[in-house]
Amino acid sequence: MTGMRWSSDDHPYVVPCLDIRGGRANPSAWHEGRACDDPVEILDRYRCQGTEKIFLDIQDGWRDDSRFLPLLRELCSGGGALLVSVDNGRARDDHDVEAVLGAGAAAVALSTATVDSPDLVSRAVRRHGSASVLAVMNCRRAGDGWQVHVDGGRRATGIDALSWVAAWSAAGVGAILANCLEREGATEQGYDIRFTRAVVDAAGVPVIASGGCGEPAHMVSVRSRAGAAYALANTIFHRGIHSVSDAIRHCDGHR
Fold it and tell me: Where do the domains of the chain lie?
């Protein structure tokens, strides 16, 4: 088990996200007028700016684990709590979960596996502890509610989002990352407050809000209005629109 800690009043609650493919940041991150695709350098910068939790989305398939696991070990050795998803939140078996945690990840993030391999996710909770398992939910609107999608948001499952949240909270995952696919990417409209509030109300565990952050004020809003424990952001940091330290300072000023 790891020493990972989830809390609804954690600080700082800003969670940068870094996408990695083929050992490089994808897309590159901009810093001081230059592009950088070295994930080690990017994570070091995020850590220096005060973040404690970082979400790593490793987009390579598990067949490439001989390449990305050494990189993951290097990234984890730098400190902080890395929340790691591989291949759209898949895990082929218990060994894959153990490989991620054994490399030093604070938590393994599972999305597609919660639908395709639910028994595997439940075993991960029992074997490694609740704090070591982060359940990731990608959703789109469906009527008056939301539907769970997997395979990076490409495959609709027909599963009601709030039923999924209740089930995995009861199963003992440490936290839930709730990503709104309509807001994801470079929309910068802000988090979907109604969606996040509904997830928080249905969950018995801390919730990470995801999808649509365009400025630090959006992070404050999703925490104060929707009750999110954490706010994940990608584009605003990668494009150099705001620094992680700027976001943390802004959030600290509105506690």
Answer: 14-252
* Fold of the 14-252 domain: TIM Barrel (3.20.20)
Backbone phi and psi for residue 82, each to the nearest 5 degrees, phi listed first:
-95, 130
Encode pLDDT of 99-149 as tens digits.
Answer: 999 999 999 999 999 999 999 999 999 999 999 999 999 999 999 999 999
Which one, of 169, 163, 168, 134, lies nearest residue 146 by Cα?
163
What's the Rg (C-alpha) of the chain? 17
Structural contact between residues 236 and 215, judged by C-beta atoms closer than 8 angstroms: yes
Q: Give the pLDDT confidence score for residue 4 in this predicted structure.
A: 85
The dihedrals phi and psi of 118, each to the nearest 5 degrees, come to -60, -35
Residue with tokens 């494009």: 239
pLDDT at 134: 98
Q: Which two tokens stand for residue 116?
A: 């395709």
Q: How confident is the model over 75-103, as pLDDT tens digits?
A: 999 999 999 999 999 999 999 999 999 99
Strands (E) across the chain are located at: 14-21, 24-25, 29-31, 34-36, 53-58, 81-86, 107-110, 133-142, 145-150, 155-160, 175-180, 207-210, 230-233
